[in-house]
Amino acid sequence: MIYDTIVAKTTGNGTSAINMIRISGSESFDIVQKIFKGSILKNQPSHTAHYGFIYNGNEQIDEVIVTVFKSPKTFTTEDTVEITCHGGNFIANEIIKHLIANGARLAEKGEFSKRAYLNGRIDLTEAESIMDLVNSKTINQLKIANSQLKGDVLNLVDNLQNSVLDIIANIEVNIDYPEYDDVTEMTNEIVIPNIKILLEKIEKILRESSTGQIIRDGIKTVIIGKPNVGKSSLLNTLIKEDKAIVTEISGTTRDLIEAELNLDGVILKLIDTAGIRITDDIVEKIGIDKTKKALEEADLILLVLDQSTNITDMDNELLEITKNKQRIIIGNKIDLGSKINLVNEHIINISAKNNIGIDKLSEEVKKLFIDEKLLESDYTILSNTRHIGKLEETKIALLQALQSAEEQIPIDMVEIDLREAWSSLGEITGDNTSDDLISTLFSKFCLGK
Ligand SMILES: Nc1nc2c(ncn2[C@@H]2O[C@H](COP(=O)(O)OP(=O)(O)OP(=O)(O)O)[C@@H](O)[C@H]2O)c(=O)[nH]1
Ligand SMILES: [Mg+2]
Predict the structure, then answer these.
(1) Which pLDDT belongs to residue 438?
(2) Atom in ligand 1 nearest the alpha carbon of residue 235
(3) Cα(449)–Cα(175) distance, rounded to whole angstroms?
């Protein structure tokens, strides 16, 4: 497919030593040549760099290095030029302006990657992994993004799709050539075990994906407790920064306070909340309502109790509300006593103020969420919510197929569900994906990517 020639700055905004501008499309060499004084670009071998100057008419704009990439061995598979110019937004914008005046079009967000996908150079999972790479903040996030970029998710999905297709193909042969004796008849009895094997594989991948998702998106961790127990102190100690206001006055924190913490490769998205109590103060009431809402969306709750005082009704109420959630009970102010002893509950005793016991807390979080063995293996871990969602859909379609087969419903009806499963898998890699999804997906990319 021939597309028009697009241009964008690939480096970020702000002052820097150099900037890079990328141009992709069949007219790339001609358009750049119109403003470049140096080698004749289209005569140069691919993947070579050339020194020269960018001019606007007779006026020199910048001294640059121009790198030539010839189709098809380029990121987009199209002819591509990268201009490395001096830093500062002004120069780069000037060059882009002249490239546009000479026939290029300003690229949309993610348009280079979209072309790489549309031109068959990468599949959707690989395109998405590029964005994950850019957004990585921990070594584990980087590992997962790199595995996806290498095509691990693509291979995993391809294998599953092939297994579904095998079953479908066999059913088809039976429907089309029922008179052939040498073709094993694909009865529901033969289909059932094959579907079960597939379901087991998918369920295993989904179980393991929870670690992947946590690594990619972080653990939404809400700190709750009654007023003055030391929630804000805990937040500050964890992030080693005085972010939340701490005072001895009950009801200090009114609004949600958010902070991120990298805990040995796992991102905790911490939320400090207003202490929960019955109050007439309207601002505090709104804060408490927000706390309750944050609780519903939490992956993890850090319930803080005060070891210097006896347990109260409010503490008991909070223990009750959170009992079915993933939670860690924290006994803070352990420097002042250990008055709380809960039967059948494990308490992590700390002093947020004096930085005691914080390591134990970190270990506990990792124990709850991270399967270290999984991370050390070279098993492909799904981490992207979209992929996991599509795999869930596949599972539902397979369960439906299994149920139909077990109820002895005609095999061609079972096949409809199998086709559904096959197509949900295809949507992960972009085999059969709507234009709308593609546009939305790539619009989340940065400019120049
Ligand atoms: N001795 C001792 N005091 C602590 C400890 N942690 C917090 N405090 C003190 O307890 C008081 C309340 O701390 P905060 O962190 O503001 O408590 P909070 O739970 O955020 O309170 P609200 O925002 O009002 O709900 C402050 O005076 C802190 O210095 C601790 O481990 N030991
Ligand atoms: Mg507070």
Answers:
(1) 76
(2) 15
(3) 48
Q: Show Cβ contacts of residue 439 under 8 Å, excluding neighbours closer than 6 positions.
A: none
Work out the number of other CB atoms within 10 angstroms of the CB of residue 191: 23
Secondary structure (3-state) at 351: strand
Task: Return the pLDDT at 184.
Answer: 53
- What is the Cα–Cα distance from 346 to 150, expressed in whole angstroms? 42
State whether the beta carbon of 191 lies less than 6 angstroms from ligand 1. no
Question: What are the φ and ψ backbone dihedral angles of 87, each rounded to 5 degrees?
Answer: -70, 180
The two tokens of residue 206 are 């989904």
- Atom 7, ligand 1: which residue's CA is nearest? 230
What pLDDT score does 266 carry?
83
The per-residue b/e assignment along 359-397, b for 16 or more CB within 10 angstroms, e otherwise, is eebbebbeeebbbeeebeeeebbbbbeebbebbebbbeb
Query: Which pLDDT belongs to residue 168?
Result: 86
Name the one residue in this structure whose structure tokens are 């999984």: 374
Q: What domains appear along the chain, each with residue ranges and CATH number?
A: 6-123 (3.30.1360.120), 137-214+380-443 (1.20.120.430), 217-373 (3.40.50.300)
| Ligand 1 contact via 252 beta carbon (within 6 Å) | yes
Q: Give CA–CA dist 340/316, Å, rounded.
A: 11
- Which residue from 178, 233, 153, 168 is spatially nearest to 198, judged by alpha carbons? 168
10-residue mean pLDDT series, the chain (449 residues): 91 90 97 97 97 96 98 97 94 96 95 93 92 88 90 93 87 66 64 94 92 89 96 96 94 93 88 90 87 91 97 93 94 96 92 95 88 73 92 97 92 91 92 74 77
Q: Which atom of ligand 1 is nearest to the CA of 356?
A: 31
Q: What is the DSSP code (8-state) at residue 38?
A: S
Q: What is the pLDDT of residue 244?
A: 95
| Whole-angstrom distance, CA of residue 266 vs CA of residue 215 | 6
Distance from the CA of 289 to the center of ligand 1, in angstroms? 21
> Computed from CA positions of residues 411, 414, 420, 426, in that sequence, does the dihedral angle turn out positive or negative?
negative
Beta-bridged to residue 332, according to DSSP, are 306
